[in-house]
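for the recovery benchmark. tokens below, seq after
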């Protein structure tokens, strides 16, 4: 005996059925957002979360998506290739898997750090002077450490040493304090930003014997 789905008219011979409905039309008590939009930075691939840009792997993104769905299911997974959320529902002893298409959009964008970096923006210059060998290895170390928290927009090799142009003064201060080397700091007014705040460029001069 076959049954007909009252919603779409499909026959139970051609489609899987749950109770009186085919699996596509089964009245599922689930609320899904109409559309989800993620801003993705095309350079560093971080994702915008509120006002911050953060690292997010595929599994975490799937979690962000399924958490936005509410309803009568005990688990949900997200398939990025097909843009489908699979809901796992317990009905008596059986577990049902129901797929629903979700509208998720990944917008290619550029995060604040990357757009500043590509525009050559910097807040600080670290000027390394003195012994060329020490300078060289110190410059590498500084670049490696600062890349974790900010960006290095330019490295300038001069005959008197190396200048590093850095995205965040705070990050430089924190690193220099941690290293514990003596430095001379100078601040210059660089202009005023859109909100009328004074912008400073800070130079850190470090000398190696
Ligand atoms: Zn149906
Ligand atoms: Zn970025």
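predicted aa per position
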């Amino acid at each position: 005996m076959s049954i007909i789905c009252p919603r779409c008219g499909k026959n139970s011979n051609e489609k899987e059925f749950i109770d009186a409905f085919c699996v596509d039309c089964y009245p599922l008590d689930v609320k899904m957002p109409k559309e989800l939009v993620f801003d993705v930075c095309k350079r560093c691939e971080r994702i915008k979360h509120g006002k911050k840009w953060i690292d997010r792997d595929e599994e975490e993104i799937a979690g962000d998506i399924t958490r936005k769905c509410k309803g009568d299911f005990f688990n949900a997974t997200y398939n990025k290739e097909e843009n489908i959320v699979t809901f796992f529902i317990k009905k008596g002893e059986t577990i049902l898997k129901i797929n629903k298409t979700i509208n998720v959009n990944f917008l290619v964008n550029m995060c604040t750090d990357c757009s500043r970096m590509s525009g050559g923006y910097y807040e600080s210059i670290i000027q390394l002077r003195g012994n060329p060998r020490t300078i060289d290895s110190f410059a590498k170390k500084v670049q490696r450490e600062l890349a974790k928290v900010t960006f290095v927009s330019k490295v300038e090799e001069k005959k008197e040493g190396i200048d590093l142009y850095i995205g965040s003064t705070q990050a430089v201060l924190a690193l220099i304090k941690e290293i514990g080397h003596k430095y001379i700091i100078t601040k210059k007014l660089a202009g005023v930003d859109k909100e009328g705040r004074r912008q400073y460029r800070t130079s850190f001069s470090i000398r190696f014997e």
